Amino acid sequence: MNTLTLTLNKENIISAVKADTYITGRADKSVDAVKNAAVAYNEQAGDDAYHEVKLFRTLREALSKFEANLAEYVDTSDPNAQVTNTLNKDNETFTVSITVGSRFNKAFAPTLSALAESYIINMMLYSWWQSLKTSLAKDYYGFANDSLIAVQRLLSKSAPSVSANSYNAPTGEVVDSSASQTSGSDTTTEEQTEVTNP
Questions:
Q1: From CA 79, how far away is CA 101, in angstroms rounded?
Q2: pTM value?
Q3: Terminus of the chain with fewer CB atoms < 10 Å: N or C?
Q4: Is residue 197 in some structural domain?
Q5: What is the C-alpha to C-alpha distance for residues 118 and 104, in angstroms, rounded to an integer?
Q6: Sequence-distant contacts of 74-79: CB under 8 A, at least 24 apart
Q7: Strand extents, DSSP E, 101-163
Q8: What number of other Cβ atoms are within 10 A of residue 141's Cβ?
Q9: Range of the structural domain that residue 124 is part of
Q10: How many domains does the chain have?
Q11: Rounded distance between C-alpha atoms, residue 81 and residue 98, angstroms
Q12: Could you report the average pLDDT of every consecutive run of 10 residues in the chain (198 residues)?
């Protein structure tokens, strides 16, 4: 069993969501600055307290969905196998620890972290646009699903690890036991051989 620990930056994720909503709002405003000014303002995730509450809530939801989708890749034969996270409002970074089989190549951990971040950001944007622009929300859901498929490929198609045990071919030795038979034996046998493995 191996434990992977992915370290993600909460502020980077929330900033990425704000940036995407800002760009969309700017694009809408550029079509008609007067008519769409209020629309753009309400589309853009900002630093208002109620925006921060929603962003943190959707971050938790996206992380929970990510963990749920990884559950099938955790080795359930181990009673200690788990998917855990350390997300809270105060920490700048949080970790996601995943217990996986020994065949997983840990060299893919940075790639897995980037894909996890991408999935979470896109799921947050899906939640953000769900009540504002359903067609845009569907696009972000598709982006998140693409990231999830890539994560699943990493976890399910890693090459087998090299065995730590060397292979030893069986060896044997032929011993002629006829010479050790006594002349007074009641049994007469032809030449006997015994194969022993050390």
A1: 13
A2: 0.72
A3: C
A4: no
A5: 21
A6: 74/98, 74/99, 74/100, 75/1, 75/99, 75/100, 75/101, 78/1
A7: none
A8: 17
A9: 2-156
A10: 1
A11: 8
A12: 86 92 79 63 70 89 92 72 81 86 82 95 94 89 95 74 64 64 50 48
